[in-house]
Amino acid sequence: MVQIVVKMKNVDVCPEWLLIELQGRLESRHECQLAGNFIGDLHFNKQGIPIFIIGHHILYGKVHNLDKPFIVMIKQCSQESSDSMEMETDQIKDSQSQGAQSTEQLDETQYIVNAIIKRKLVFKTRPKPIITNVPKKVF
Length: 139
Description:
The protein is mainly β. The chain has two helices and eight strands; from the N terminus they run E-E-E-E-E-E-H-H-E-E.
C-alpha cells in the first residue's frame, strides 16, 4: 500500500495564487529560458480588469474561476539509513526473529501544500502596442 503524506504549512493562512493563460507563446530575443526571469507587469484597474504589460505591448484580460482548484505542493524527501533505524528498533525486533537488515536507503516522502489556485487570468486578445504621443508636425 502506498501512502502519500500531505501537510499544510500554516492551516490558518494558505496563499492564493493565480494562473495566467495567454494566447500564443512567449519568446525571448536572446534564446534563453523564461523560467525565473522578469516577463512583465501585472496590474488591475478600478473595475478589477487585469492588465498585463510586456515590453511595449499591453494585454487586457478577464478573471475566471476554475471549476476545480489546483494546489501547489513542495516535495520533501528525507532519507534515513536502515542502520540507524535498526539501532532504534532493536528492542522491538529482539522478540521477533527476522532476516538480516540491508543497508539500503529508506525514503520517506511527504508533500507540503504551498498555495491554492482558484482563479485564472485569461488574456485572449492579441497584444496592442503602446504608442506614446508623437508630434503631428515634423520640423
